[in-house]
Structures are given as structure tokens and as C-alpha cells.
Write a structure and sequence with these properties.
Distance between the termini: 93 Å
Largest sheet: 4 strands, parallel
Oligomer: single chain
Number of helices: 15
């Protein structure tokens, strides 16, 4: 019996060695690339970042198609370099110097989806630039992971917040307005305000503008003019994009719209409940607000599906309630995985038709106008503070 056990163990070890050897050159090369991708899939920029981005792409380009399919790491996969997300050359990173005395820095979380970045984030930036011809408009992203991805894959360099502020100082900017494209006064907005505060003394005047939805409010019933404008803009634009004359027309044709936001554990999560209140106040019975994170609780996919079913809608349009249609829109909402919202809605077997609109709300003209208005308020406040 003991001899048989030893034989079995020896066989298993031999098999493992054969498998390791069989892992071969292809898998080893793929693993080496995965390791390089994981090294730049980080939120902190270092003195090595530029070199690491370059090395990762060079190593990827040397792989055969078969080897590329084997790339798998902690965060690495074949899509990191291999997925087609559009033409990066259509996007303007807005990292030019010669800024002048007045700068508007538009700060976004960011996305590595090229077409969405150009249309959604770029749409907001262009609208602000057109409304402020005497100011230089520049860009910063808060997600270094995304900055690294775009730089490594497309050789497009986008400033992080610190780089953008240092650029402004170096270029002699005197008056700085920071316009976040964030949805609400959440954790990212708070972090941005803290980052800008460290640079305040390096400019004559600095002002941080409001996010899209404006002030949060104390309870779920609290709404403001920003939320009303956003609700009308998003609902009506989405209805027309789905070939309805209005959101009311879609309701009459038994079609509901589900807008998927990110969600947050921050106290600002009540903003999602307030948006649901605002939609109801406008009479949009067929509009539902959900979140990827399921915070607040009623915005989880499970609870949204339940709410839509209870109202008897048979046709569904899913659309991101996010400025940009990036990873969450393409994967968490419209992806093929069994836990995507599209898959979960299909799995419920409660609906006849489910469509997805993979567009961020940043490309909606009325949404761009709200950001322009918030920037104008900040410019005005900056001017008034200089008079004191």
C-alpha cells in the first residue's frame, strides 16, 4: 500500500513537471507580459511609469496572436491591449503648454475607451472652451490606472491632477477654475478639493466649480434645479435615441428606461434617490435609477428588476447614468458575463426586449450646458473674490 502511494505521488510530481514544461515558451512569454501590465495597473505614478508603459506595449507587440490570448494576470488580460475601443487620435488630451493667465482645468475620472472619451468627456471640454474663449481649457484625470492604460496602448499622455496643477504653475497661470465632471459631491469630489487646496497659494485666485447635480440635499425628497435639468435632459435624449418622440411616448409603448450609475458608500449616495424622486416628480413613471455598487440599496440590479416587473413593463432600455460610457457601461451593464445587467435582465425571463445605449451623458448638449453654467458661476465667483 505504501509503495503504491509513493508511486502515485511520484507520478503526480512527474505530471506536474511535465505540465510546467508544457507551460512552455508561449505561456512564459504571455506571463511576462501580464506581469508588465500588472505593474502599470496601479493608482500611483512614479518615476518609472513612462518606461514601464513603453516596455509593456513593446512586449505585447512581440507576442503572436496565440500568445496574446494566454495573457492573464492579477488585472491583466488580452483586452488590455487587444480590445478595439476606437480611434485615440480623435481625442485631444489638452496637455499643451502656453496656457496664459487664465485656465479652466476640467477634471474627470477618465476612461480608456477612446471613442467614449472623445465624445463624452471631450464633449464637455469643448462646450466649456467654446463658452470661454478668453480662458485656456486643459484636462486632468484622477484615475492613474486609466492614464497608464491609454499611455501604454495609444501613446496618448493625459495629465493626472498633480501634473496638471504643476503645469499650470509652470506656465504662470494666475487665475484657475477647476471644473469637475463628477456627478455629485462624493468621495472623488472631496479628494479633488483637497488636492487643489494644496496649490491655492501658488495662484492669485482659485475656484472649484460644482459637480453636475449640484448640492446634495438632506433627504431623498430634496431636489434642485440641477437635478431637474439633468432628469429632463437624460430621459428625453435617451427616449429619442431609442426612436420615441418622448419619454411619455415610450411609456405608452410599454418601454421602461433604466439608468445605471456607479453607486457609492459616501453620504452623497442619497443623490441617486433624489434623482429617482425627481424623475417621479416629472411624471416619468417608466424611468428607474440603478447603480453598479447597489448603494443605496434600492438601486441594486435585483431591486430595479423587481420594481420594473411590478410596474409591468415588457421592453427595457439600459443606459449608463455616467458622464462617460467606459468599463462599467461596456462590461457591467452591457457585457456578456452572467452578472452583467443585460444578462441579469435576460435571466429574469420577464421582458420581451432589452436594448442597451452605450453612450455617456457627457455628450448630451443639455448636460454640457449645465457644466458650462457651473463653470460660469465659478468664473464669476473668482472675479468677485479678487475685488474684495
Amino acid at each position: 500500500m505504501k509503495k503504491a502511494l509513493v508511486t502515485a505521488v511520484s507520478f503526480a510530481m512527474s505530471a506536474a513537471l511535465v505540465f510546467a514544461a508544457g507551460k512552455s515558451a508561449d505561456q512564459k512569454k504571455a506571463d511576462a507580459v501580464a506581469k508588465k501590465i500588472d505593474a502599470i495597473y496601479v493608482q500611483k505614478r512614479t518615476s518609472k511609469t513612462d518606461k514601464q508603459c513603453l516596455e509593456a506595449k513593446k512586449a505585447w507587440d512581440k507576442l503572436t496572436d496565440a500568445q496574446k490570448a494566454l495573457v492573464e494576470g492579477e488585472n491583466a488580460d488580452p483586452d488590455y491591449f487587444g480590445r478595439d475601443t476606437g480611434d485615440a487620435s480623435k481625442d485631444n488630451p489638452l496637455n499643451q503648454d502656453k496656457i496664459g493667465a487664465n485656465e479652466i482645468l476640467v477634471v474627470s475620472f477618465g476612461t480608456s475607451f477612446n471613442d467614449s472619451r472623445a465624445a463624452d468627456i471631450g464633449g464637455v471640454e469643448k462646450a466649456i472652451a467654446e463658452a470661454n474663449p478668453d480662458w485656456s481649457v486643459r484636462r486632468a484625470f484622477t484615475a492613474q490606472i486609466i492614464i497608464n492604460h491609454v499611455q501604454a496602448r495609444d501613446e496618448e499622455k493625459i495629465d493626472n491632477v498633480e501634473q496638471a496643477l504643476d503645469r499650470a504653475v509652470k506656465n504662470g497661470v494666475k487665475n484657475l477654475v477647476v471644473q469637475p465632471t463628477h456627478l455629485m459631491h462624493g468621495a472623488e469630489y472631496d479628494e479633488l478639493v483637497a488636492a487643489v487646496k494644496k496649490y491655492e497659494k501658488k495662484f492669485e485666485s482659485v475656484e472649484v466649480a460644482e459637480p453636475l447635480l449640484g448640492q446634495v440635499g438632506k433627504d431623498a425628497a430634496t431636489t434642485n434645479s440641477d437635478k431637474e435639468k439633468v432628469a429632463k435632459a437624460v430621459a428625453e435624449y435617451s427616449a429619442k435615441a431609442a426612436s420615441f418622440s418622448s419619454i411619455g411616448d415610450a411609456d405608452e409603448k410599454n418601454t421602461a428606461f433604466v439608468f445605471m450609475g456607479h453607486g457609492t458608500s459616501h453620504t452623497a449616495k442619497i443623490s441617486y434617490s433624489q434623482m429617482a424622486t425627481q424623475m417621479a416628480s416629472l411624471g416619468y413613471k417608466n424611468v428607474f435609477i440603478g447603480t453598479v455598487e447597489g448603494e443605496p440599496e434600492e438601486t441594486s440590479c435585483e431591486n430595479v428588476i423587481k420594481a420594473v416587473k411590478e410596474k409591468g413593463y415588457r421592453n427595457i432600455v439600459l443606459r449608463p447614468f455616467m458622464v462617460v460610457a467606459g468599463d462599467h457601461a461596456n462590461n457591467d451593464m452591457a457585457g456578456d458575463d452572467e452578472d452583467s445587467w443585460l444578462s441579469l435582465f435576460k435571466a429574469s425571463s420577464s421582458f420581451e426586449r432589452i436594448d442597451c445605449q452605450i453612450e455617456g451623458i457627457g455628450r448630451i448638449p443639455e448636460i454640457e450646458s449645465i457644466y458650462v453654467s457651473h463653470t460660469a458661476d465659478a468664473v464669476k465667483a473668482l472675479g468677485e473674490s479678487k475685488k474684495k
